[in-house]
Amino acid sequence: MLNELHIENIAVIERADISFSRGLNILTGETGAGKSIVIDSIGAVLGERVSRELVRRGAEKGLVTAAFDVDGCEDWLRENEIDAEDELIIQRRITADGKSGCRVCGNPVSASQLKELAALLVDIHGQNDGRQLMDERRHREYLDRFGTDPDALERYRVCYQDYREIKKELSSLEMDEIEKERLSDSLRYQIEELERAGLKAGEYDSVCARRDLLRNAEKLSESLDSAIAMLSGEEDNALSLTQNAAWYVGKAAAYAPELENAAETLNSAAFSLSDAAESLRDFRESLDFSPGEYDSLETRIALLNKLQRKYGRDEDALIAYLDECREKLDNIQYADERSEKLKKQLAAAEEQCRQEAAKLSSVRRKAAKLLEERISGELRELNMPSVRFKVDFTPIEAAPCFDAHGSDEIRFIMSANAGEELGRISRIASGGELSRIMLAMKNVFAEKDPVATMIFDEIDTGVSGIAAQRVGEKLYSVSLGKQVMCVTHLPQIAAMADQHYLIRKEERDGRTYTDVLPLDREGRRRELARLYGGDNITETTLKSAEEQMEACERFKAGLSDKA
Question: pTM to 2 decimals?
Answer without folding.
Answer: 0.62
